[in-house]
Specification:
Strand content: 15-25%
Radius of gyration: 14 Å
Order of helices and strands: EEEEEEHEH
Largest sheet: 5 strands, parallel
Distance between the termini: 39 Å
CATH class: Alpha Beta
Shape: globular
Number of helices: 2
Length: about 130
Amino acid sequence: MSVFHSDVVHLSDLRYLAIQAYDGSPPASISNLVNLQTLIISSKKNIVLPKTIWNMVNLRHLYIRSGENLTEGPNFVQAAENDGSPNLLLSLQTLSQVSPRSCQDVPSRAPNLRKLGLCGSLISILDS
C-alpha cells in the first residue's frame, strides 16, 4: 500500500494487523480497533504514532519496522483520561523501534512491558 488505508480502522474485531505502507503512519482513528492485540507496521519512512494509539488497552505487541519513530506529543502516553486517572497500558508487553525521546514514561505507563527496542540517540535524554 502507498499509505495506511483508512478503511482498516472499521474492522473492529481484528486482533492482529500487519501492514506495509510507503507512508505507514496510522491515522488517529487506529484506536477504533479496540480488540487489536498485535500491530506490526513496516514502512520505508519514519512513522509517527498518534496519541490515540495509547488508548488501545488490549494492545500487547507493537512492532514498528522502519527508522527512528516517534509518538505524537512530548510524552509516551497521554497524561490522563478524562476522569483524571492515569492512562495505563497494562497489556503492552512489546514495544519496538521507537525513539528514546518518546519513551520517557514507559516504566510508569506500561508496567508489564517485557521488551523495549529503541532506535535513535540516547545522548539528548542523558543530558536532560
